Amino acid sequence: MAVGVRIDIAGATLEQYDEICRLMGLTPRGTGPAGLLFHWAAKHDGGVLATDVWRDRERFDEFARDQIGPRTQQAGVTKPPEMTFYNVHNYLTAPGDLGNPRGPIAVVMDFDGNLEQYDEIIDLMGFAAQGAGPHGGMFHWVADVNGGIRVTDVWQDRVTFDDFSEHQIQPYSAKVGVAAPTSVTIYQVHNYLTAGA
Q1: Is residue 154 helix, strand or coil?
Q2: Can you tell me whether residue 73 is helix, strand or coil?
Q3: pTM of the prediction?
């Protein structure tokens, strides 16, 4: 089962994050390690927030042990990253080549809905589970969190997300009885990595 991981690197700078990626041999906005489905990172609360989706927990644990731990120390990060795990209910990938997004954003939305309602919304939008997502969407995943659902998206830019939200998310959510999100957090994406081999 796919696993989502929120990685909070308290006190880290974006320069240290870039160094961690370099030490791992990862090219910015390139392909990630084997088993990774998607990764994004942004500045957050005096540190760096990274969010990953992996094919399974075992592959992530191995990567964290062999790469994340040692490389963060090598880059001068003194505190180990704090990790929160989620069972991924569904994910959607980019519908084609990502091109070169100029201002990618990540959007984290919490809803007072359930996964059955989410499945109905996705069906109404015409998307298949673990299939291609909407034009302009780079990656999307959803998990059950604290009795509601958390949707985490990465979009090529804010305008494309706002348009999709107005014309798709809002009307279809209302149609199945899901109110507006209880929280929405938007991040300027510093880096992202696409699916590994």
Answers
A1: strand
A2: helix
A3: 0.94
